[in-house]
Write a structure and sequence with these properties.
By secondary structure, the protein is α+β, with helices and mostly antiparallel strands. The chain has 2 domains: about 5-185 and about 300-385, Zn peptidases (Aminopeptidase), CATH 3.40.630; about 185-300, Alpha-Beta Plaits (2-Layer Sandwich), CATH 3.30.70. Helices cover about 30% and strands about 25% of the residues. It has 9 helices and 20 strands. Strands 1-2-6-3-7-19 form a 6-stranded mixed β-sheet, sandwiched between helices. A 5-stranded antiparallel β-sheet has the order 12-13-15-10-16. The mean pLDDT is about 95. The structure holds zinc ion. Zinc ion (ZN) binds next to helix 3.
């Protein structure tokens, strides 16, 4: 018998499944079995074909009318060089009070914590609150056949939680110091400018596309695009790649290309950014008499859950269990919360994430139990807040 709690043991079992996207590697069977034992109805939702096929799990308990959701992903990023790890990344070793393994922080322990919280809550809750779990196997890669499609499916089936917590590791230094209530959007551009190749000594016979390209890129050169707003810092833009068709010093290249990425707040949409930049590119291209082609790619719109019932209940639960005042923040990369926001108010809250995606990813074992306590407290506060 292990001395560790249910939550910690479940986290260990999940880590021992090497579920690098797109493999679920037994994680969903494990959860389905666990959840069925605790009265959940489980629905496996597979989306995509062939090598793009992803398995997901939707699980539901209780009748409602009040409806609370938790969301999480069972997939993990690759481990890097296994020999660089102190412990095997899929062994779930516990040493000096820390649990080590790929997914320990991001975010198998978070899933284990909410399942443990629900078990505890089921024993004491007087309410018929419905709990649903949105568990995907496709968060770390392209996130095409995961939460996005599960949310579509839920909408088609008229499943609408009142609020949702995503168990991403949002805490910075100590558990409870940070709640994420929004995320920036991401827009990438791939720009190719075509001029006319020629001898550098005879520039009047050529048209150098790099001169145009440099002016075209001016607005996205490590620039802040706005002054931010009450929920977000300024939108930022960075150039991520540059090249030309020439690799010698005596030829003016025929083409010059660049890639850039914009992380934008709710002051913009991808459409307004694209229209603004395309207009600028067009003007420069005309002045330099060059052609350009721009390809856009965006996998995330910005969103924000304004301070309200969800953030109040969650902050109060965190304060009650840890004494800490959680800061609301919208920093960091993208997450599946960007899809869930189409269903209901959503916030991300979980363990300390500072080692996520790193070698020797780890979390404090006692934090896993604390997180389960906070989630359980959240469920009781949600119950108390619903009059029916
Ligand atoms: Zn994650």
């Amino acid at each position: 018998m292990s001395d560790f709690s249910y939550a910690v043991q479940l986290a260990q079992k999940l880590i021992r499944c090497p579920s690098i996207t797109p493999e679920e590697a037994g994680t969903l069977d494990l959860l389905e079995e666990e959840l069925t034992q605790h009265g959940f109805n489980c629905t496996r939702l597979a989306f995509g074909d062939g090598k793009d096929r992803i398995d997901n799990l939707y699980a539901e308990f209780g009748e409602g009318p009040a409806h609370f959701a938790f969301a999480g992903h069972v997939d993990v990023v690759p481990v890097g060089r296994v020999e660089d790890w102190q412990f095997n990344p899929f062994q779930a070793e516990i040493s000096d009070g820390f649990l080590y393994g790929r997914g320990a922080a991001d975010m198998k322990s978070g899933i284990a914590a909410f399942i443990s919280a629900i078990r505890q809550w089921q024993e004491s809750s007087q309410k018929q609150t419905k709990i649903s779990l949105i568990i995907t196997g496709d968060e770390e890669a392209d996130a095409i056949n995961g939460t996005s499609k599960m949310v579509d499916w839920m909408r088609q089936n008229n499943i609408r939680p009142d609020m949702c917590i995503v168990a991403e590791p949002t805490s910075q230094k100590q558990i409870g110091d940070n709640i994420r209530n929004g995320r920036r959007g991401s827009l990438s551009g791939s720009l190719i400018v075509t001029g006319k190749q020629g001898h550098v000594a005879y520039p009047h016979l050529a048209r150098n596309p790099t001169s145009a390209l440099m002016q075209m890129l001016a607005p996205v050169t490590s620039a802040e695009l706005d002054g931010g707003n009450p929920y977000f810092g300024p939108s930022t833009a960075e150039i991520t790649g540059l090249s030309t068709s020439s690799n010698v010093t005596n030829v003016i290249p025929a083409t010059a290309s660049a890639m850039f990425n914009i992380r934008f707040n709710t002051e913009h949409t991808k459409e307004t950014l694209q229209a603004w930049l395309e207009e600028h590119f067009y003007r420069i291209a005309k002045a330099f008499k060059v052609q350009f082609e721009i390809k856009w790619k965006s996998n995330a719109d910005p969103f924000v859950t304004e301070a309200g019932k969800l953030t109040q209940l969650l902050s109060a639960a965190i304060k009650a269990k840890t004494g800490r005042i959680a800061e609301l923040s919208t920093t960091g990369g993208t997450s599946d919360a960007r899809f869930i926001t189409q269903l209901c108010p959503v916030a991300e809250f979980g363990l300390v994430g500072k080692t996520m995606h790193q070698i020797d990813e780890n979390v404090l074992v006692e934090d896993i139990d604390m997180l389960a306590n906070i989630y359980e407290e959240m469920l009781h506060r949600f119950d108390a807040n619903n009059e029916y």
